[in-house]
Amino acid sequence: MLNDSRQVPESFLDKQSAVQTVIVPPHGWFRFNPVELWNSRYLIALFVYRDFVIYYKQTILGPLWWLIQPLFATGVFTIVFSMAAQISTDDIPPPLFYFSGLILWNYFASCLSQISRVLLDNRDVLGKVYFPRLVIPIALVLSNLLRWAVQVILFVLIYVVYWVRGAPIQPNLFLILLPLVMLYLLLLGLGLGLLVAAVTVRYRDLVLAIPFLTQLGMLISTVIVPLSAVPESWRFWCAFNPIIVPIELFRLMTLGTGIVSWTAVLIGLFLLGLILLLGLGLFSRAEQTFTDAV
User: Fold this and answer.
1) DSSP result, 168-217
2) Percent of the chain residues topping a pLDDT of 90
3) What contacts 35, CB < 8 A, 6 or more positions away?
4) Are 96 and 255 in contact (CB under 8 A)?
5) Which of 154, 186, 181, 150 lies closest to 248, judged by CA?
């Protein structure tokens, strides 16, 4: 073993001294370092893999649950709301109408539910090892995006079946906006999830309320009832539900039906920015003291 550092090659010492990492306590209400997140991209990929393995460990059907859940919900909605309640679907086949809304809503709801518990569920890891705390929420929205992509493939198959049968559906050039729609949903789920995660560090009641609130949110969105069925005098206020704009846009670009106004888009973007800033600010503040509260 070498006892004198002078025996170590100078080139090795130069390389060692060139790599320095200084970790300082977080401070302030808004701590966001994109360079640090980019340097942690491999860790994000590892967390995405971990979420996939843990969630479907010791299951028989595995990722098939990604398809079973929306298909079952679509069948129930078709029987209850279309056949029994006779709720309009804008002349779109009910299974296609409900499935198109469900896959977007499920993505948002999954991101919100999982991110809202990120500090509580990972307190053992976060309290011992340092890495950017936003790594885990970002990994969650990406793993859920993978599930959404699989559900879109099933949506396309259902779409082709109805299109061949002559259903009044038609895609249009608005399809080029699909990446922007998903980016909007990703940031909305991330921002709102971070906001709730910061609050639940001290007030655990919100953790119990999230499942109820997500179910209520689906009922007051356009997953079940199209915006065209809402009285015109109320549609302006519907724009303050930020999930309505991406759902209506997705239906407009794929099914050829949907009501989207510039006013609703601008209100949605304003709410998205506000929620994202509040979420990042409160989460940055909460990560400084969460180990003392959990």
Assistant:
1) S----GGGGGHHHHHHHHHHHHHHHHHHHHHHHTT-THHHHHHHHHHHHH
2) 35
3) none
4) yes
5) 181
